[in-house]
Amino acid sequence: MPIIETRQLTKQFRQTVAVDALSIAVEPGEVFGLLGPNGAGKSTVIKMLTTLLPPTSGAASVAQFDVTQQMPLVQRSIGYVPQALSVDGTLTGYENLLIVSKLYDIPRSQRLGRIQDILGYVGLEDVSDRLVRTYSGGMIRRLEIAQALLHRPRVLFMDEPTVGLDPVARNSMWNLVKQLCRDYEATIFLTTHFMEEADSLCDRLAIMHLGKVVATGTPNQLKASINKPDASLDDVFIYYTGDYLASAGDYRDTSKTRRTAQRLG
Amino acid sequence: MTPQKPGALLSGSARPTQTHSANPFSSLGNFIYKTLTVTELEVRKLRHDPTQLMTRAVQPSLWLLIFGQVFSRIRAIPTGDLPYLDFMTPGILAQSILFMAIFNGLSVIWERDLGILHKLLVSPTPRAALVVGKAIAAGVRSLSQVILIYILASLLGVGIDWNPFALLGVLIATLLGATLFSTLSLIVACIVKTHERFMGIGQFLTMPLFFASNAIYPIEIMPHWLQVISYVNPLTYLVDVLRSLMLTSETSTYPIATDLGILLAATAFLTMICARLYPKLVT
């Protein structure tokens, strides 16, 4: 039974259809990547699946709970690493996790142990008493993942997890995601527009363009689908989404991505 | 470094169950607990960076030391037997509470831009707890203004009532007033959504609220149309209750219970609206 399922999921903002009748299914233990240019509707899909945004029509379930009817149960089942920063720079790493542990009702007797475990797992135990604003971009992303995992979710959502990171931090992030999959058979739903990232991390991909899914499959299936020898995922991406500049997001998307990059950089 | 592998980071098959909404008492307990957690988040931030409390102290000091002293001398405002400085001291405390709380919305827009708000909204936290928790934190910040104004007022010879019950009442009124105006500010933030627009509206709100109240002059000397506005202005009732509680002389217009009741009802009403609007900030 799919752990994430959408049926004709649609989101309309006034005249713009951001997500157009999306139907996808993600199996437990899968790393599923949603690809697409800026403005394709990827973040809107994640916002609907994580209960941040009500769909205009259609339905979606996460961990077998309906995202509009059973919001608290969906919220307890998921971890979410948003595209922008989700940790507070004016608190220490430990304090960020402590507040999250309380918001997710982790019993007092287990809090310290869980926080120490997760800090050890992401390699931040030595800096947990430092204010987060003194962390590097890579450390901040690791803390965000720690925060998203603290309540032991069934699905981890990551919206553009490596945007704004330098190559070293990006590699380290990929290794962490792979390690999570290896150790826990995690179900991870991520969005990205880095083809290398999608190729290296994802079991299965869906390519979105202008609110619609235009192709789905494993990275190899997608490469084979475009009839080009030695095709890379970049080729697949351009084939399905076109390479014209007009598709690359709007002013708001661009400013948001650049702000995140600036803060992490 | 080889990271250690903790017991379980992602739960394989454990399904969460609805534990909080089944019983109304447990729902209320959950609401209070989450509200206090959100307040704790804000108070911890304040502990790491208390400089804003210092900068916020400047404005009320100027009002009391300059405006208050000058207007006391020229006796332009009729306050009966009560010295003008005594009359305006509770008004300046109410003003400080208003000015501190009204810009809470700006911090929410900032948190939305950063992404911190997304984290809070995907957690199983009642929306109203996010609103009230943040608003109570504005109240906690305002307590620094209470201390400052009590010290300044004592030095200036204002007839302060030091009865512990009166002091407790002032603390409650301060928390309530800050919660009310902070919630109003969060509503504005949910509607306007950007810093630039908020700054404009924030200025537009604070000055009329302040001048159309009994903070620095009695309602009786206002023109009729302004009197009508002052009666629906919640700041009037905050000033009135503070005047009852802070001063040794009896000068208030309404009974304390009426003032607190109106403030509480207005806060509850605004909280209901704000809890509905809050998720729209991230859309």
Structural write-up:
- The complex is a heterodimer of chains A (265) and B (283).
- Chain A has 265 residues and is an alpha/beta fold.
- Chain A is built from 10 helices and 10 strands.
- Chain A has helices spanning 42-49, 71-77, 93-103, 108-122, 137-149, 167-184, 195-201, 219-224, 233-241, 251-264, and strands at residues 4-13, 16-26, 31-35, 57-62, 65-66, 78-81, 155-159, 187-192, 204-209, 212-217.
- In chain A, helix 3 crosses helix 4 and helix 4 packs antiparallel against helix 5 (137-149).
- In chain A, 53% of the residues are buried.
- The mean pLDDT of chain A is 88.
- Chain B has 283 residues and is an all-alpha fold.
- Chain B has one domain (32-42, 49-76, 83-282).
- In chain B, 72% of the residues lie in helices and 0% in strands.
- Chain B is built from 12 helices and no strands.
- Classes of the chains: A alpha/beta (265), B mainly alpha (283).
- Chains A and B meet through helix 2, strand 6, helix 3, helix 4 and helix 6 of A and helix 1 and helix 6 of B.
Count of runs of 4 or more consecutive helical residues of chain B: 12
Tell me the strand percentage band of chain B: under 5%
Gap between N and C termini of chain B: 41 Å
What is the residue-averaged pLDDT of chain B? 85
Rg of chain A, nearest Å: 18 Å
Q: Could you say how many structural domains of chain B there are in total?
A: 1
Q: What's the arrangement of strands in the largest beta sheet of chain A? A: 6-7-8-3-9-10
Distance between the termini of chain A: 40 Å
SS strand fraction of chain A: 15-25%
Number of helices of chain A: 10
Q: Count up the domains of chain A.
A: 1
CATH fold descriptor of chain A: Rossmann fold
List keywords for this structure.
heterodimer, A: 265 residues, alpha/beta, Rossmann fold, 6-stranded mixed β-sheet, 4-stranded antiparallel β-sheet, 10 strands, globular, B: 283 residues, mainly alpha, 12 helices, 72% helix, 0% strand
Topology:
The complex is a heterodimer of chains A (265) and B (283).
Chain A: E1 4-13, E2 16-26, E3 31-35, H1 42-49, E4 57-62, E5 65-66, H2 71-77, E6 78-81, H3 93-103, H4 108-122, H5 137-149, E7 155-159, H6 167-184, E8 187-192, H7 195-201, E9 204-209, E10 212-217, H8 219-224, H9 233-241, H10 251-264
Parallel strand pairs in A: 3-8, 3-9, 6-7, 7-8
Antiparallel strand pairs in A: 1-2, 1-4, 4-5, 9-10
Chain B: H1 24-48, H2 51-56, H3 58-74, H4 84-102, H5 104-114, H6 116-122, H7 127-155, H8 164-192, H9 195-211, H10 224-232, H11 234-246, H12 256-277
